[in-house]
TrEMBL record:
Assigned protein family: Belongs to the nucleobase:cation symporter-2 (NCS2) (TC 2.A.40) family. Azg-like subfamily.
Taxonomic lineage: Bacteria, Pseudomonadati, Pseudomonadota, Alphaproteobacteria, Rhodobacterales
Name listed for the protein in its UniProt record: NCS2 family permease
Keywords: Cell membrane, Membrane, Transmembrane, Transmembrane helix, Transport
The organism of origin for this protein: Paracoccus niistensis
Transmembrane segments: 20-37, 49-68, 80-97, 103-123, 135-155, 161-185, 192-219, 239-263, 318-338, 373-401, 413-431
Length: 434
């Protein structure tokens, strides 16, 4: 019956292979159940509730992806937008986390409408590859700065703004050790390298007395502190439009790029152009649905995980792989005490390593063309140095359109890029300090 539901044999797989692939994917992305609560709890959100919301959002998203799209792709709250949610929207712009959840909900609805109407295809076609690559790389640099700051490797300095911290302190030492563990294990192609690194640093931190041990297994905590706490009307009434714009753009680019990349590896995009592929359309619908569900549960935007490629490498070809991921995330809700024991020094090396992977996108930029390279570099630089993904996108799109116009190449700019650039100009006019 399972084979018929997921067309397992038709895709050249077996139930056993799909289950193993699901476990492989879960191990490579399970680090998010420790990292996401650590980031979002900085806004005042209940850490245990965020932990459960993270697991449930990942389970719902992965289940919908498996049952509706029948693709072997796991989903969970995405890296980058969780930091944007916590450190920019709440921390810098001063919105409440309830309003930020409202913005996530609105972005999910917009993403859903874009996918249903086909505007998403037009938007993706209109944004230059150099900008898409720069967005990913810039988010990586933003995550790296956050991790270096939280671990104490980088500290504030009144003369130079930032400086090197005390590398002999426990925080920096544990972070550095964790990074080497993760990088070495990943280089050796050990499944779950990031998760192993987080758990290893957590164990060392507890043994050294740097953090306390709260246990491993217990009944799942209540999600009530964050469940349905989103303030949609508050978000709509506080000029948060530019925040929603950033969320939608990153969600669309991140999800589409990941889904196409992983699906091609799995051989699922061979029946026609990717932009008209039925499986891709359903997968994007699943992605946007998961964003809406996650905002209601109490977490930042949910997205497809590129780590799903590990499951595809292990043989995953159907939605049974994603459904396995969903079940494992549900079981992970019983690990709340362990999640509460994970210190920032254990999640910091994971963030730094994820950043190194994201920075590979710089290779996709056409460096020989200044009108492509300069906006891309400004996009990436502005994100960490203004502590905002929104500012990075704004600098990049406005510069891209401006340089093309000034060099007589305005015809090369798609209407979508002009519209996004114009929206960001309006943002700077009406919200100059945002």
């Amino acid at each position: 019956m399972i084979e018929r539901i997921f067309n397992v044999r038709e895709r050249g797989s077996s139930v056993r292979v799909e289950l193993v692939a699901g476990l492989t994917t879960f191990l490579t992305m399970a680090y998010i159940i420790f990292v996401n609560p650590d980031i979002l709890s900085s806004t005042g959100m209940d850490r245990d509730a965020v932990f459960v919301a993270t697991c449930l959002a990942a389970a719902i998203g992965s289940a919908v992806m498996g049952l509706w799209a029948n693709w072997p792709i796991g989903m969970a709250p995405g890296m980058g937008l969780n930091a944007f949610f916590a450190f920019t929207v709440v921390g810098t712009l001063g919105y409440t986390w309830q309003q930020a959840l409202g913005a996530v909900f609105i972005s999910g609805i917009i993403f859903l409408l874009l996918s249903v109407t086909g505007i998403r295809r037009w938007l993706i076609a209109g944004i230059p590859q150099s900008m898409r690559s720069a967005i990913a790389a810039g988010i990586g640099m933003f995550l790296a700065l956050i991790a270096l700051k939280n671990s104490g490797i980088v500290v504030a300095n009144p003369a130079t703004f930032i400086a090197l911290g005390d590398l002999t302190a426990s925080g920096p030492l544990l972070t550095i050790a964790g990074f080497f563990i993760i990088a070495a294990l990943d280089a050796l192609r050990v499944p779950g390298a990031i998760l192993i690194g987080i758990l290893a640093v957590t164990a060392a931190s507890i043994l050294l007395g740097v953090s306390s041990f709260a246990g491993i297994v217990s009944a799942p905590p209540s999600v009530a502190p964050t469940f349905m706490q989103l303030d949609v009307w508050g978000a709509l009434g506080t000029g948060i439009v530019h925040v929603v714009l950033v969320m939608v753009l990153v969600e669309v680019f991140d999800a589409t790029g990941t889904l196409i990349g992983v699906a091609k590896r799995a051989g699922l995009l061979i029946q026609g152009p990717t932009h008209t592929n039925t499986g891709l359309s359903r997968a994007l619908m699943a992605d946007s649905t998961a964003i809406v569900a996650g905002s209601m549960l109490g977490t930042s935007s949910t997205t497809a995980y590129v780590e799903s490629a590990a499951g595809v490498q292990a043989g995953g070809r159907t939605g049974l792989t994603a459904l396995t991921v969903a079940v494992l995330f549900l079981l992970a809700t019983f690990l709340a005490p362990l999640a509460g024991s994970v210190p920032a020094t254990a999640t910091a090396p994971a963030l730094i390593y994820v950043a190194t992977l994201m920075l590979r996108e710089f290779a996709e930029i056409t460096w020989e063309d200044v009108t492509e390279a300069a906006p891309a570099v400004l996009t990436a630089l502005a994100m960490p140095f203004t502590y905002s993904i929104a500012n990075g996108l704004a600098f990049g799109f406005v510069t891209y359109a401006g340089l093309k116009l000034l060099t007589g190449r305005a015809r090369e700019v798609h209407a979508a890029t002009w519209i996004v650039a114009a929206l960001f100009v309006m943002r700077f006019v009406f919200f100059p300090e945002g």
